[in-house]
Amino acid sequence: MKIHPAIIAVWAAVIAAGHLLPTFPILGTGGTFSISSILNPLSGIFFGPLAGALCSAAGGFIGSLIAPYTAWMGLGTFIVGTTTSFTAGCIAWGKWPPVAVNSKGSFIFNGGIIVYIIGTILWFTQEIGRSVFYFPLIFYGLGFIALITALVFTAKSKQVWKKPVKTGIAIWLCAFGGLTGGASVGNFFSLVLFKQPKEFWTALTVYAPIERAIFALAAMLVGVPLFMGLNKIGILTGPANDED
């Protein structure tokens, strides 16, 4: 499905404006989450991994300029939102199985899996990360379970995206998987920039999955009516319209 540039521009503007509405602090960084945190996974779910990532990248970069109090990584903060959108898009628009062999004998991985692999490797490059080995195993593990569950739930039948209740379940799974994938990259930068102690990450092992689950729920509550409404007025979004 081809996404009109005007739609990408409008959604990027919405994400940028969302940075003006902070929600609550990001522990250990001095920054704050914004409403855009729940919009980033929707970018990928609505428009696909590449177009969605472009929306979040543009909106996130502009948002960092107009609301620097949400930019805990400075102008590079948009990287986390972009990764979140890309991962959520790879999950929502992905095929089953997530790992396949093409005609040339090369392995093809779902892009979301690659993000998780990279995020986990980056974590263990840091001494503090290695000392809290259970953090990625639990947090990223839960996100990876959501990724696989979403692929099983949606990839075999795109009709899932035609029914509100099933769409809600799919959005939550994709959003949680996407948010966790984005966090896997953000956590690495947090380790490098702020060097939080082992005790901080131990506490976050419980707090972080709950936080992303709540964000995913908010994305679901916003996403389902918007998803259904946009398709009704002729703005095609979502994997079910991939061939339109």
Provide a quick synopsis of the model:
By secondary structure, this protein is mainly α. Helices cover 68% and strands 5% of the residues.
Describe the 3D structure:
With 244 residues, this protein is mainly alpha-helical. It has 9 helices and 4 strands; from the N terminus they run αββαααββααααα. The chain has a two-stranded antiparallel sheet with strand order 1-2. A two-stranded antiparallel sheet has the order 3-4. A hairpin with a 6-residue loop joins strand 1 and strand 2. Helix 5 (111-124) runs parallel beside helix 8 (164-194). The model has no long low-confidence stretch (mean pLDDT 90).
The best one-word shape is globular
Estimate the strand proportion. 5-15%
The DSSP helix count reads 9
Roughly what is the average pLDDT, rounded to an integer? Answer: 90
**Uncertain segments of ≥5 residues (pLDDT<50)?**
none
Structural category: mainly alpha
Widest β-sheet, arrangement of strands: 1-2
Describe the biggest sheet?
2 strands, antiparallel
What level of helicity do the residues show?
A: 55-70%
In total, the number of strands is: 4
First CA to last CA: what distance?
Answer: 6 Å
Radius of gyration: 17 Å
